[in-house]
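Thread: Newbie trying to understand structure tokens

Hi all, I'm a second-year student working on a class project, and my supervisor (Dr. K.) asked me to get a predicted structure for one chain before our next meeting. I've only ever worked with sequences, so writing a 3D structure as a token string is new to me. If someone could post the tokens and maybe explain what I'm looking at, I'd be very grateful. Here's the chain:
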Amino acid sequence: MARSSPLAAIAGALPGRSDLAWMGYVGVALFFYLLPSNSYVAAVPVLQEQWSLSNIQTGIIYSAFVAGYALSALAVIPLTDRLNSKSVLYGSGILSIVSYIAFPLFADGLITAIVIRAVQGIGLVGVYMPSLRIIAERFPRKGRGLASGFYVTVGYGGFSLSLLFTGALMNFVDWDTAYLILGIIAIVCAPVAYALLRKHEAAPATRSSGRLDLKVFKHRTVRFMVAGYTIHTLEVFTIQIWIPLFMAAVLISRGYSTVSAAAVASAMAGLAFTIAAVGPLFGGILSDRLGRAKTLAGIAAIAAACGWGFGWLGDAPWALIVFVAVIYGLVASADSAIFSAALIDTLPRHSIGSALAALSFLGFMGGVVGPIALGGIRDFVPESISWPVSFSVIALLTTLAVFLFTWLHWLEKGKPLPIHSESD
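---
Reply by user tm_fold:
Sure, no problem. This is what the structure looks like when written as tokens:
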């Protein structure tokens, strides 16, 4: 039998018109919600001077957001096995918007910035993961990768446009005013989300206690996906802060002032990441067609290649730096929707919340460590090689992910492993 073309496979996985419209409104709500999410990154070059921050402290403030997300995931996400996901989503959304507005108004140094960023992360986990679960419940397995990929693509686009818009506004106003403007605009997401979800009545899994169930780790897929997601999240969150700062450092070395370099680098990095935000959509489609593990291995291989080379581009033409940033962001994000889809594919409904909580917590702890570790490398490795060494460390971990997912693919296919034949 002839194999169908990729375009035919995509067409076959497309939802109906009403579901496409529903997903479009989800995208609008998520876009507005995430507008202030990366404003801190855009302001970092200025804040390092104003608050006398080291590179490690800069990474700690950034990672406080990820830590808040990771820690609260243990409590918030399992609740979606027992409570209606939209109830969790509404409360978390309000918390997020308040904390986004609070940062430019009240953050004045390391401690206050850490606290507010942590609260922002707590709010995000209660919005992002329940929304992803609602989408997964709405769409059948055949189109789940596509639908989840679209959602994650919009999420990456929102983070990226936050960076772009903040950088653009900083050409006209101070960083805190730019941040506050985007925080106020984000309020638009609330009525859109309410109108979109008010009729959603997913039945809770009555067998669940609503608490974290560690028995999910008995499943091989959970163990592999959590390990891989930890590496993925470390990579993604690290490059989201340090690629813009690398670009700003390049511009400063070429004669730009700190403020101008921050504005231009944030806008260009935001543009690059926005273009790259289509990655999760195509990654989800490929995983529907080729299989989750095989797709993850291929994506990780390309991301590793980008990491090995990116830190050496300090003297390269500016256009080449932006181009590689687009490719790097594209492949680093392309596997984002696959991990949760793989868990939902293989686990009973009453265990999905606990599995997603474990995925989020352990995965995002990688996202906590990565930005701080790279800041430490930048502080203690000689300046002449600090950028190449920093990105090469990320690339090394991504290379390990290639072997991890290749191993899982062989296990799933029941083939003899390249190294040994021991099975789970």
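A couple of things are worth pointing out once you decode it. DSSP finds 17 helices and no strands in the chain. The chain has one domain: 22-199+207-413. Feel free to ask follow-ups in this thread.
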